Each structure stands twice: as C-alpha cells, then as structure tokens.
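FAQ

Q: What does a record look like?
A: Structure on top, sequence underneath. For example:
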C-alpha cells in the first residue's frame, strides 16, 4: 500500500515538475572567455542560473521565453526555419511515443530533451501550450512557416477522432515521400546545370590563363592566326579587360530576374512557360497530380471535409496556372459533389487517373483511390527523372568534349604549324 502511494506521489511530483518547467534563453561566457548563447529548461530563473553556474558559465543575461516571443525566438535567435528533416524526426518520434502509450504532454517533454536548436524551442512551446489547455493543433498553428495548413488540419482531425497516432504516421510517410520525390526531381534538373557550370569554368580557365601565354608566343613569331584562334584571342582579351563590367552585368541580370520572378506577373509567366516547355511541362503536370492526389487522399482519410480539403490542396500545388484550373473545378465539385467529372474538365488529369478517381467515388473509397493515383504517377515521375539523368549525362559529356576540343584545337593548331615551320627551317 505504501509503495503504491509513494509511486503515485512520485508520478504527481514528476507531472508537477513538467507543468512548471519553462524555457529560458541565456547569454554567458565560458571559463576561457568564449561567448555562449542557448536555451535551458528550468522551473524558475534562479533554477536556470544555478544549472548554468554548475556548468561553469558566467551569466550575462537570462530571460524567460514567453508565448509571444517563442515564435520570434525560434526564428531570430537560432536563425531560419525548422528543416524538413527536423519536421520528419518530430512527426515520426511523436507517432512512435503515442503508439507506445505515452501521454501526449509527456511525449512532447521527451522530444524536447532529444531536440536541439530551432526544433527544441518549438517543441517546448507546444508542450507548454498543451499544459495550459490548448490543443496540439492550436499550438502548431502558431508556427505557419514550419507547419503548413495541411499539417495543422490533419492533426486537428486526428485529435477530434482519437486517431492522432495514425495521422502522425500518415504525415511521416507523406513528408518522407515528398522529400524523396523533390530530391529526385531536383537532382534530375540541377545535374545538367552543374555540368554546364563546369564547362563554363573550363572555358574561362583556358581563355584567361592558357590562351594569352600561347597567343603571345605565336604573335611574336609573326605567324598569322586562324580565324578560330583570332576569335578566341578576342574573347580572351575582352574577358581580361572587362571582367568587372561583365561581373556587374551578370549580377544585375540575376538580381533583376530574381526580383521579377517574385512578382505576380513574373511568377505566372514562369509557370506558364513551364507548362509549354518540353519535358519540363511533363514534370510540372505530373508533380501537380501527385501533390493533389496524395494530399487530398490523406486529408479525406484523416476525416477532413471535402470542401476544406480542396481549399488546402489547391494552395499546395506549385504552379499558379494549374492552381487556377483546380480552383475553378473546386467550386463545381463542392456544388455538385462529383470529383472525377470536374477534374476531367481541367485537362490536368489523364484518363487513367480520372477512371481510378471515378471508381473510388462509386465505391465509396475515394481516399484509397486518390492514394493509388498518387503512387502511380509518383512512380512515373521517378522513372522520368532517372531516365532524364541517364540520357542527359552522355549528352553533356559530348557537349563538354566538343567545346573543350574546339578550344584546344584552336590553340594547338597554330602551335603545331609553328613547330613545323621551325623544323623546316632547320
């Protein structure tokens, strides 16, 4: 009896301790004079100072991170946002802890101990909000730059239905697939750009460092240079004499383009161009199908209503032109309730996808069929990116060999001619 009472008392004390813990931000000096800043969990300012003093730190300032400043603190003090990798870690670990039967508040406390930096500040704020009576979804909604609307709404639906651990599991799978797919697509598109940069670097190296030395020797011999060599010598002289001007022009063009693409008209023009450019248009459309289908399927499975789900989905598709088409379809779907019929009118979804979605509507398993559509076109997108990389690599190697070969021949041709003339003279 005594041991049981003692266990209950210990549990109450532990929970009371968790409830009174707060996050403090400190600035201090170490024994060797280095400036150190960070956060510490403590029940009071004095307790926080005692913890830091035991670590050998000399405190300059220590302040409580209030609810109003927690979000600002997570951005300004640590800098930047929580990464996708951190978000996946948080979602997966929270799902595992809840599945193991750990209460939500205790799970967040455990996660705050395992987290670092930006994520730690956010998790502590979520835990404190939960202990003050707010829901997890309300806490997440305070960080819109970290947790998107789809994330918050799914958590809210999971809390309402009592299936929070299942929703977290689905969110983990969703985030992991999104990260994997984005990585594949970006590698397929950035690989050729890197190779182009390498070609440009080799060309500049030859024009700036190699050609001037050789051209000086050739001109000293009074030898007439071929047209290709004269062209390269002219390009080399221009680079050497006007490199600052060229750098300024390139920086200006890049800055103007970077600004223009953030404007509504610039962004729409680029999105429209993506839908008209070969290969790129297939990437854009297929990626939109995957985003739309997987997200809508997951929202419906999580218990979010169709109208609200469509609002969320229309805002996560990357291409603004496609977003406009989907928003028009959304109005008709909400009024009539026929998803497949109005998605077909957008022209975005191919016949197979429309057939699967229609089958899901008829059988009452729309969420399942939407997930199948996402898997189908996710596979196609993955195969396309792999195939594109496999085809572009040899092509870029041929281009590189051609460019470098042209420059080498333009340089070496006169050199060989000069050596032959010298041999004839001897």
């Amino acid at each position: 009896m005594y041991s049981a009472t003692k266990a209950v008392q210990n549990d109450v004390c532990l929970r009371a301790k968790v409830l009174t813990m707060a996050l403090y931000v400190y600035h201090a000096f170490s024994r060797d004079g280095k400036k150190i800043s960070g956060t510490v969990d403590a029940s009071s300012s004095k307790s926080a100072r005692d913890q830091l003093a035991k670590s050998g730190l000399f405190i300059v300032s220590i302040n409580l991170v209030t609810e109003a400043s927690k979000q600002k603190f997570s951005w300004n003090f640590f800098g930047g946002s929580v990464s996708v990798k951190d978000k996946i870690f948080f979602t997966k670990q929270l799902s595992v802890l809840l599945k193991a039967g750990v209460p939500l508040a205790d799970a967040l406390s455990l996660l705050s101990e395992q987290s670092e930096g930006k994520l730690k500040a956010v998790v502590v704020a979520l835990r404190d909000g939960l202990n003050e009576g707010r829901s997890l979804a309300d806490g997440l909604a305070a960080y819109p730059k970290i947790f998107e609307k789809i994330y918050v709404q799914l958590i809210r639906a999971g809390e309402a239905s009592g299936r929070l651990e299942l929703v977290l599991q689905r969110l983990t799978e969703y985030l992991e697939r999104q990260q994997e797919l984005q990585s594949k697509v970006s590698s397929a598109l950035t690989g050729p750009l890197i190779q182009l940069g390498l070609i440009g670097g080799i060309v500049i190296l030859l024009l700036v460092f190699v050609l001037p030395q050789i051209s000086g020797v050739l001109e000293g011999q009074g030898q007439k240079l071929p047209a290709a060599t004269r062209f390269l010598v002219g390009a080399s002289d221009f680079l050497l004499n006007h490199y600052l001007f060229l750098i300024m022009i390139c920086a200006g063009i890049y800055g103007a383009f970077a600004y223009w693409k953030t404007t509504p008209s610039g962004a729409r023009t680029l999105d429209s161009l993506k839908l008209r450019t070969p290969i790129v248009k297939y990437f854009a459309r297929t990626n939109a199908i995957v985003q739309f289908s997987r997200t809508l399927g997951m929202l419906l499975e999580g218990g979010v209503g169709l109208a609200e789900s469509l609002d969320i989905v229309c805002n996560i598709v990357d291409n603004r032109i496609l977003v406009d088409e989907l928003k028009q379809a959304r109005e008709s779907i909400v009024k009539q309730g026929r998803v497949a019929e109005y998605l077909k009118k957008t022209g975005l979804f191919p016949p197979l996808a429309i057939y699967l979605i229609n089958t899901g509507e008829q059988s009452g398993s729309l969420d399942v069929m939407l997930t199948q559509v996402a898997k189908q076109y996710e596979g196609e997108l993955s195969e396309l990116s792999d195939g594109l990389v496999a085809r572009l690599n040899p092509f870029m190697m041929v281009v590189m060999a051609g460019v470098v070969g042209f420059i080498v021949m333009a340089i070496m041709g006169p050199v060989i001619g000069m050596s032959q003339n010298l041999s004839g003279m001897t």
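Q: Is there anything notable about this one?
A: The chain is about 80% helix and 5% strand.
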